[in-house]
Amino acid sequence: MAAAAERPSAGGFVLWLHGSGGSGDESREQVAPYFSAPGIASSVRLSFPTAATASIPCYGDAVITAWFGISEVPITAKTVRDEKEVLKAVEYVHELLDKEVAAGTSPSDIFVCGMSQGGALAIASVLLYPKTLGGCAVFSGSVPLNKSFAEKVSSEARKTPVLWFHGMADGLVLFEAGHAGCAFLEELGMSCEFKAYPTLGHSMVDEELQYFQQWILNRLGMTVSGATETARPSSSSNHKDPQ
């Protein structure tokens, strides 16, 4: 797994985790334009690591990038993952976060976000991180941990706000999985803003990313006039992108 990010400085830090079959470079092309305006780019740094490749049995042993194994498709509210693999991936994300904090970035200015499996890893990493972060954004994801992990979620982690996007027409990570994930977070006492899109499948669209951009800026206390106007329309879909 390789990560590339500029050195810490004042402002926010967004760690973006791609879906299985994707890459950091692909994610950068989709997401970075929404933070490219001069008033934003100088204050919000972005990092797009790429997962290692793995053989995925449910895809005929195809070798693709993945943060952890994919047990079945589609992903439902009852899908069970290999928790050891999930926790190994969480450990990797925590190492990235710890380095950022050690370099001087305030945890309250750090955001862990991702699409599909990347979104699942993002929320798992936030739940098990000992500090309150600026926020977590999940696009078409799910919670990849058993509810028994609830007792391992610290009081500080429960204060991290979550923004969750999910298409009701998603055929790879079913809407029920996203809805159940947000309900689980609310059971923990966490703030989870859930945004449902009736006709959206397993993809990201401009409307979501513009809202995401504004959410990040608002959390950082930034008001950039005309910020959303700098974004390019985005629509992405990866057929090898369940969790």
From TrEMBL:
GO molecular function terms listed in the Swiss-Prot or TrEMBL record: carboxylic ester hydrolase activity; palmitoyl-(protein) hydrolase activity
Stored InterPro entries: AB_hydrolase_fold, LYPA1-2/EST-like, PLipase/COase/thioEstase
Domain Phospholipase/carboxylesterase/thioesterase, chain residue ranges per copy: 12-216
GO cellular component, one term: cytoplasm
Superkingdom, taxonomy of origin: Eukaryota
Family: Belongs to the AB hydrolase superfamily. AB hydrolase 2 family.
Protein name per its UniProtKB record: Phospholipase/carboxylesterase/thioesterase domain-containing protein
Lineage, opening ranks: Eukaryota, Viridiplantae, Streptophyta, Embryophyta, Tracheophyta
